[in-house]
Amino acid sequence: MNLSAPPPRCWAEIDLAALSRNLERIRAALPRPMRYIAVVKADAYGHGLPEAAAALQRVAPDLFAVANVAEAIALRQVEADRPILLLSPVLPAEDGFLATHRLTSSISSPEEVGRFAAAAQAAGRPLPVQLKIDTGMGRAGVWHEAAVGLYRQITASPHLRLEGVFTHFANADADPAFTAEQRRRFLAVLGTAGVPRAASFLVHADNSAGLESLAATGPFNAVRIGLLQFGVLPHPASPSAAVGVQPVFSLRTRVGLVKALPKGADVSYGRTHTLRRNSMIAILCAGYGDGLPRAASNRGQVLIRGQRCPILGRVTMDMTIVDVTDLPGVAAGEEVVLVGRQAAEEISLGEWSVWADTIPWEFLCSITKRVPRIYSPAPAG
Ligand SMILES: *Cc1c(COP(=O)(O)O)cnc(C)c1O
Fold first, then answer.
1. What residues are paired with 127 via a beta bridge?
2. Looking at the predicted structure, is the pLDDT value of residue 216 above 70?
3. CB within 8 A of 146, min separation 6: which ones?
4. For the chain, what are the domain ranges?
5. Contacts for 157 with CB less than 8 Å, ≥ 6 apart
6. In the structure, which protein residues have their CB atom closer than 6 angstroms to any atom of ligand 1?
7. pLDDT digits (tens, 9 = 90+) for 312-358
8. CA atoms 107, 113, 115, 117: torsion sign
9. Domain 249-376 in the same topology as domain 16-231
10. Which CATH number fits domain 16-231: 3.20.20.10, 3.20.20.140, 3.30.420.240, 3.40.50.300?
């Protein structure tokens, strides 16, 4: 027995080969050659930024995108050359970092034009920027009716180098009519502004959910892909399933204790489940302290020996209780799959999203620091 450190009680396995392969498959599925912007915000959707970036670099994305300056600086440690696009607004106190780390900020306002131009002047060289247009998402970006004015302001500045324009769909997978309207608004801005039709000037809208959308036609020459490259579909019926991506992330724990409880006994906080039969329960070594959603209490399932076992009662911070009455011989130490495949069965993030009334993006971002990420193959360096 190795006594240098106890083994993890709940861990994520990250298949970096699948991540590289997924990027290749997505690229191959695009209707025509397009720049691939690999979105690795939020610690690469909880997978670990440096490791995920290295796996993606092996198959050469054209750009990376992250949310903010701190994430971009972390990415610059491992990505010396490729452009890094910032998707969230830059804070005034962060302006000085843009030039130092050669970051491409999004611009949504005249005020930002002034700030970034001043930062470029201070640095003694122009800053790369991309114009973000709000066509109906109602988040970052300049409102489309004001976008042409902002476009002209940016292109008139000798201190800014406009490298692209983009928008973001609010409901790409569920509302094709509104997505078409957003696209129409975006194209109207491009037409009036007279944006360059050049391979080097990026025009993009699609994320994972929009991959097969209307934006595949028209002047678009880049896609921004986050979730799908991690092998997760935006929703179970997504046409992106045809791309054939494979899951990168799985989550495992172990049985900590197996015990018998009589019919009529209650299970876990709040006594929300009463046993309807004499039962064997297994106490798992994972809970919401690891990122399991408490909302999946009494609803979720896990895999033990390739069999689905239902969660009984509330998910607690460090322990979750499942029913193993129909699975004789389960013992302390046995491996349990929370997300992923075991034997012929598989539990997907899509299923957890239904059980916990959430979305796969949130599930991945909720896995806590207590959970070690174990990489295969082991990352280089
Ligand atoms: C997060 C994000 C993406 C990536 O979205 P996925 O659905 O994960 O592919 C693309 N564009 C913007 C603006 C984003 O914020």
1. 160
2. no
3. none
4. 16-231, 249-376
5. 113, 117
6. 39, 41, 87, 168, 207-209, 224-228, 234
7. 999 999 999 999 999 999 999 999 999 999 999 999 999 999 999 99
8. positive
9. no
10. 3.20.20.10
Q: For residue 73, how many C-alpha atoms fall within 13 Å in the half-sphere facing its CB?
A: 10
Give the residues across from 280 on adjacent strands: 260
Helices of type H across the chain? 16-29, 41-45, 49-57, 69-76, 95-100, 110-123, 147-156, 176-193, 349-355, 360-366
Atom 4 of ligand 1, nearest CA residue = 226
108 CA to centre of ligand 1 in angstroms: 17
- Locate the ligand 1 atom nearest the alpha carbon of residue 140 and give its number: 13
Q: Which residues, 6 or more positions from 240, have their beta carbon under 8 angstroms from its beta carbon?
A: 208, 209, 211, 212, 228, 233, 234
Residue 170 gets which letter from DSSP?
A: S
Lookup: tokens for 213:
């959308």
Task: Say how far apart CA 169 and CA 351 lie, in whole Å.
Answer: 24
Count of all residues that appear for the chain in the document = 381
Tens digits of per-residue pLDDT, 152-194? 999 999 999 999 999 999 998 889 899 999 999 999 999 999 9
Residue with tokens 């204790």: 257
Q: Are 144 and 186 in contact (CB under 8 A)?
A: yes
Give me the catalytic one of 36, 41, 132, 375. 41
Task: Point out the catalytic residue in the list 36, 263, 269, 375.
Answer: 269
**Dihedral (C-alpha) 5, 6, 10, 16: value to the nearest 10 degrees?**
40
**Domain spanning 249-376: CATH 1.10.10.60:** no
Nearest atom of ligand 1 to the alpha carbon of 225: 9
pTM to 2 decimal places:
0.97
Active-site residue 263, yes or no? no
CB-CB contact of 15 with 378 (8 Å): no
> Catalytic residue at 41?
yes
Tell which one of 68, 84, 87, 213 to mutate to probe ligand 1, the residue whose CB is within 8 A of the most ligand atoms: 87
Which tokens go with 253? 């724990």
